[in-house]
Design goal:
Helix content: 40-55%
Low-confidence stretches: none
Distance between the termini: 115 Å
Radius of gyration: 27 Å
Oligomer: single chain
Structural class: alpha+beta
Strand content: 15-25%
Mean pLDDT: 88
Order of helices and strands: HEHHEEHEHEEEEHHHHHEEEHEHH
Number of helices: 13
Strand order of the largest sheet: 9-10-11-12
Length: about 325
């Protein structure tokens, strides 16, 4: 009797390699629909769950290999749980962009009700325009302008201001995009607040390196002190120079707003060398910690006003 040869089985490695590649691109998350598209059957998916190869995160969404995901992995998994057209929005989009801290609840924009009942996900049924869709570091997100609008609709003005400041600092802010969205979404929730915060940016072309810099500049202007130039370049020798936080060129006065890293030993040495170089050109340098701006604004104004007065006297100007 002829012996039947068993049907050759596809090696496990060849069946999981495409899955591993896709899961790696998606920060470790994958959906049942994607597994089926890769040629897996419903039974093989169930077996993968039973064997621990797939860890269930939400219905139809899994972590490949182990259940421990990074923050970005959870953000990606949440969009997969809400459907193929879902995007991170609001605080979740801002977190994906590195502009605000993440919340445990993930905001997702979806055109359907899918995901509305899932724990840990706050699904919003939004009719987004194509120009409001974006991808940031491989994560599906709303554009910066739309993200800011959704944050403005649900959070405090201070949080919107923080988002815009960080977006400027990170080079993600596009004023033309912001103006277009504000005009197109006129009357929508959050637009009035967003318009007000965008107007506070002022100074077209000015890029602040930190939020305390902006707060310091605004405090000094509110006290009716002369307006400084922001992050101005001061040339020294042979093409070298220094970027000055708040600079009064007519008085040769530089106000530096120092963040926490300026307290580190190496940075203190570099700052001392920089300030000595500036003083050799007749520049007066005043350094204040960023906490002075946020916790003692009156002292910042008083200290700066006194320094400006001394520089005016030194320059032979009237007090």
């Amino acid at each position: 009797m002829q012996r039947l040869c068993p049907r050759p089985r596809t090696p496990l490695r060849s069946r999981t390699e495409p899955l591993a590649v896709l899961a790696r691109e998606q920060r470790g998350a994958i959906s049942r629909a994607q597994l089926l598209a890769l040629g897996w059957s419903e039974r093989s998916v169930d077996r993968g769950i039973a064997r621990g190869l797939l860890a269930v995160l939400w219905p139809g969404v899994y972590a490949f290999g182990h259940p421990v995901l990074t923050r970005d992995g959870w953000l990606m998994a949440a969009t997969l749980a809400c459907g193929p057209e879902a995007l991170l929005t609001g605080r979740a989009s801002a977190a994906a962009r590195g502009l605000l801290g993440a919340w445990s609840t993930i905001d997702v924009a979806t055109a359907s009700r899918r995901g509305c009942e899932l724990t840990g996900i706050r699904a919003h049924r939004l009719a987004l325009r194509d120009v409001e869709r974006d991808v940031h570091r491989g994560l599906p997100v709303t554009t910066l302008a739309r993200t800011a609008l959704d944050v403005a609709a649900r959070e405090s003005p201070d949080r919107v201001g923080e988002l815009l400041d960080r977006a400027l600092l990170e080079g993600q802010y596009d004023h033309a995009e912001m103006a277009e969205l504000i005009d197109a979404r006129r009357g929508c929730r959050g637009v009035a607040r967003l318009r007000l915060e965008v107007a506070k940016l002022g100074d077209a072309g000015v890029v602040f390196r930190s939020r305390p810099e902006r707060l310091a500049r605004d405090l000094l202007l509110a006290a009716e002190l002369p307006a400084p130039r922001v992050n101005a370049w001061f040339p020294t020798r042979a093409g070298h120079g220094h970027e000055l936080d708040l600079w009064w060129p007519g008085l040769l006065f530089d106000l530096e707003i120092d963040g926490p890293h300026h307290a580190m030993p190496r940075q203190r040495r570099l700052d001392a060398l920089r300030d000595a170089d500036l003083r050799s050109f007749g520049v007066t340098v005043l350094r204040v910690p960023h906490t002075l701006v946020t916790r003692s604004p009156e002292l910042l104004v008083t200290t700066t006003s006194a320094a400006l007065r001394e520089c005016r006297i030194a320059a032979g100007l009237r007090r």
